[in-house]
Design brief:
It is a single chain. By secondary structure, the protein is an alpha+beta fold. It has two domains: 56 residues, no CATH class; 204 residues, Fumarylacetoacetase-like, C-terminal domain (Fumarylacetoacetate hydrolase, domain 2, Alpha-Beta Complex), CATH 3.90.850. The chain has a ten-stranded mixed sheet, covered by helices on one side. The two termini are 33 Å apart. 46% of the residues are buried.
């Protein structure tokens, strides 16, 4: 299933994409798509619905973040071997963890608001994991059952704030609108091979990132198990699992986003995002 949320900011309603890519309204069945509605039990009930009985919403409807009321927005750094190389950094021996403020969460096609003092705003196409069942001290073999689904994330980053100012990475990762999520959350049963998904990102029509999840250092099941040893993962939490090479920071000379730039990104089977920098 492809679950999404549509409507104006703060007033999104739950929806599902049918086989003809019509957006069907789920609001008669669910209040929203949040941690409370991502359990296997609820997803099974949605899966049993005859979608043709649900109202069709306008294809022009704004698509919001595919999950609402996110509790934690956790990111994994340097998780693609080829990206670590372009960054001039060693491949980590265990996952590099940092947080992104949930206030950065944005719709997949909403404008990106570059801060007035930004010097080096950058892009990062990433695979997102959406937690559907509490994970606490779990082993890797059981980890996948705690994932409700997957989505596209653009982990936008202000490199000056992240790498050149003092302190942790979080302030370079948490600018408002720097966390577009969606367009859909694709349930885990629809993705047969999470370790072989092509992914890409373009700025103004130029393809900078062309990668594949097969170069991930730490795979989704390991990441979920690993994180659960340090913090419980709650339904609705989102994990952004790292980016392949081709970020602006890795270009020679470096390339960064400016107002008016158009970003397009996607992951096979998980949809595309389209953004304009303002």
């Amino acid at each position: 299933m492809k679950l999404l949320r549509v409507g104006t900011k703060g007033h999104e309603r739950p929806a599902i994409l049918d086989l003809n890519e019509n957006i069907r309204d789920l609001s008669s069945l669910l209040d929203d798509i949040t941690g409370a509605t991502l359990s296997d039990e609820v997803l099974s009930k949605i899966r049993a619905i005859d979608l043709s009985t649900l109202p069709i919403l306008s294809a022009d409807s704004r698509i919001g973040p595919c999950v609402g009321n996110v509790g934690k927005f956790i990111c994994i750094g340097l998780n693609y071997s080829d990206h670590a190389k372009e960054s001039g950094m060693e491949i980590p021996s265990e996952p590099v963890i940092f947080m992104k403020a949930t206030s950065a969460i944005n719709g997949p096609n909403d404008n990106i608001e570059i801060p007035p003092n930004s010097e080096k705003s950058d892009w990062e196409v990433e695979l997102g994991l959406v937690i559907g069942k509490e994970a606490k001290y779990i082993n890797e073999a059981d980890a996948m059952q705690h994932i409700a689904g997957f989505c596209v994330i653009n982990d936008l980053s202000e490199r000056h704030y992240q790498l050149e100012c003092e302190g942790q990475w979080v302030k370079g990762k948490s600018c408002d609108t720097y966390g577009p999520i969606g367009p859909w959350m694709v349930t885990r049963d629809e993705i047969s091979d999470m370790e072989n998904l092509p992914m890409w990102l373009e700025v103004n029509g130029h393809r900078y990132q062309q990668g594949n999840t097969d170069t991930m250092v730490f795979k989704p099941a390991y990441i979920v198990s690993y994180l659960s040893q340090f913090m419980s993962l709650q339904p609705g939490d989102i994990i952004s699992t790292g980016t392949p090479p081709g970020v602006g920071f890795g270009q020679r000379p470096e390339v960064y986003l400016k107002r008016g730039d158009k970003i397009t990104l996607g992951i096979e089977g998980l949809g595309e995002q389209h953004q304009i920098c303002v």
